[in-house]
Structures are given as C-alpha cells and as structure tokens.
Amino acid sequence: MNASTGRRRRTVRDWIVDFTIFLLAVGFGLALAVEFPDPPHGEGSPYTAVDLPLWLSATEQVIALAACVGLWWRRRWPVELAVVLVLLSSVLTLVSGAMLIALFSLAVHRPPKVSLSVLVLAVGATSVHAIVRPDPYSPFLVDFLLGVAILGAVTGWGLTVHHRRRLVESLRDRAVHAETEARLRAEQAQHQVRESIAREIHDVLGHRLSLLSVLAGALEYRPDTPPEQVARSAKVIRESAHQALQDLREVIGVLRAPVGELPQPTMADLPQLVAEADDVGARVELSREHEEPVPDRVGRAAYRIVQEALTNARKHAPGARTRVRVAGGPGEGITVEVVNDAAAAPPDHSAAGDGAGQGLVGLAERVSLASGRLEHGPTDSGGWRLSAWLPWPS
C-alpha cells in the first residue's frame, strides 16, 4: 500500500495478469485488422467493404495501441476507461478488444448498476458501429445481434466474478464476526465464572471466619471458661482456620488453572455444617423431611442458604436456638426454612464486618437464578425467619 496515495501496490501476479491482458487486447486488434480479399457477393454488393484512407487507418491503429496500453490503469479508473473505449468503439473497430476487456474489468470491480449502465451505452455504440462500419460479410441485424451477444456475455462473466468475490468476502467477514463473537462469549463466560467464584468465597469464608470471630470473642469476654471448653474452642478455631486456608488455596488454584471448578458442597454435607455450628454453642437443630437424594444443583443451593442463615444467626442472635428444616420431594420442590429465636445476648456488631446485609442480597440472587422464591423477616417472638423454595424436577 502506497502511504502517500493510499493505492495498493502492484504484486507480481498483477504484473503477469496485466501483461497477459495487454497481449490479448493487441492480438484481438491484429485479428480485426486482417483484410479479406473479396466480399462474398462481388462488386456492387451492398456488403462491400469500406476502404479507409491510409492516414485514417494509421490513426486508428495508433489509437487502438494506446487503448491497449490504457488497460494497465483499468483498476484505478475502470468507469472512465470503459466509457472512453465504448465511445471509440462506435467508429473504430480495432479498439473492440480493449473495450471488451475494460467492460469485463468494470463489471468485476464496480457495482452491477454501474456496469449495466455502461453496457447500455455499449449496445448503442454497437448499433452505431454497425451503421458506420458495416461488415461486408454479414447483414446489419446479424452484425448488431452478434455484437450485443458478445457484450452481454462479457458483462455477465464479469458480474459473475463480482458476485463470487462479494460472496467470498461476505463469508470471510462472517467467519471473522463469528470468531469475534465466540471470543466475546468465552470472555463473558469466564467473567461469570469468576463472579460465581467470588460469591463462593463470600459464602465459604464468611461462614468460616464468623466461626472464628464467635469463638475468639467468647474466649476474650469469658476468661473464667473451663480449660476443657477452652481446649475445645481452640480445636475448632484451629480446624476452621485450616479449612479456610484450604478453601483459599482451592480458589487460587481455580483462578490460576485454565479449566477447573471450585469444589461444591451438596446436601450430604449439611449435617457437618450443623455440627460445626453446635461446636460453638449455637444450638442448631436439623430436620430433614425428604427421602430421595436431592440433585446436586438443588442441594448446593440449599446448603448455601442454610450456611448464610446460620452465619447471620451467629452475628445477630448469638446463643439463640436455631431450627433448620429441609422438606420436599421431586415435582413439588424443596423448602429450606431456618428460624432462630431472639438473641440470648447482645449481638457483637464489631464482628459483623463491613459487608453486613450483603449475604441476603447474594442469597436472593442465587435463589432467583435457580428459579426459586426467598422470604425473610422477623418473627412474632423477636427472632428471625428465612424461608426459600427451590424447584426439584421430577
């Protein structure tokens, strides 16, 4: 590409094609310049050849050669060159070859509307040529129809090449668009996975760290705690801290790996979650009223609901009795209900952190994505109730 003019630089293929076309146009002109000895009908026939003066014949040959040379610029000025050669072909026979090539090139490089308009002009020039320079070997009508047929064939060939190139370009653009769209889709999916991982970090680590906060606070404000209880609390703190570190390692591994999923809990892990809450004195009761195994996707959502509800209960109602009920079946859905009594001690707001209230927002989003329903609010006895319904396909 030439930076100063913005035109494409000729390639080796372009030079070969242009030189071949130049020779073809010159050969076509030489073939038309051959004179046959006698008309078929003898002297006095209406089809007698018209003899041109020597100077006019020489001028026509020079113009025809210039027309062949002008084909080298047919890509830069296809319309102008085609129109000039069409007008010259109305009176000069030897430029017919260059005119046909220019007409073909015009049909290839310009819209069909332009090439068809020049074709109409060429048909008119053919009729003029048939009158001014009649063929001594064929009548006017045959000469005219043959010229129109040749013009139509050349233009039709050029239009076919033009539409084929447009089709190839369209398919190429479509392939590029599809590739770009696929890349954007992959990036969007990756972004959604990272958001999902971020939510899992909040749920998992929020639960673990709330256990640590409650146990540490109990040890701080109750220095007279029996040694057995201190040892038990220290064990839970150590195990929770270790599990939190394991969760962080798993999350970092998922973020680093090109493909991977964060290990997800299921309904089978619910008793362990309740047992951990009992270890810190939360007094949690679990009631499971379903017989068939819960699907992993539904069980994972139910586990996260219970986990977030227990975390909120420890933050805002420490020491209160909490009841967890899971009931349902295939086709009717599964109901997860967590109800805690009024707080037995004033809540420690310093342990709630700056993200207070974000857990319920995340739960609402999770339940909504699962096509379920979420309800929460205070009870008449001063406690808190959280209830969620999730679809369970039959």
TrEMBL record:
The record, for CDD domains, names: HATPase_UhpB-NarQ-NarX-like (cd16917)
Q: Which residues form the Histidine kinase/HSP90-like ATPase domain?
A: 301-392
Name the residues that span the membrane. Answer: 12-34, 54-73, 85-108, 114-132, 139-159
The record's InterPro entries line, in alphabetical order, gives:
DUF7134 (IPR055558), HATPase_C_sf (IPR036890), HATPase_dom (IPR003594), Sensor_HK_TwoCompSys (IPR050482), Sig_transdc_His_kin_sub3_dim/P (IPR011712)
Q: Where does it sit, as one GO cellular component term? A: membrane
List the EC numbers from the record.
2.7.13.3
Q: Which PANTHER family match?
A: NITRATE/NITRITE SENSOR PROTEIN NARX-RELATED (PTHR24421), NITRATE_NITRITE SENSOR PROTEIN NARQ (PTHR24421:SF10)
Recorded source organism is Nocardiopsis aegyptia
Which reactions is this enzyme annotated as catalysing?
ATP + protein L-histidine = ADP + protein N-phospho-L-histidine
**Know the name of this protein?**
histidine kinase
Q: Which UniProt keywords apply?
A: ATP-binding, Kinase, Membrane, Nucleotide-binding, Phosphoprotein, Transferase, Transmembrane, Transmembrane helix, Two-component regulatory system
Which residues does the UniProt record annotate as the domain Signal transduction histidine kinase subgroup 3 dimerisation and phosphoacceptor? Answer: 194-258
**Domain of life per record:** Bacteria
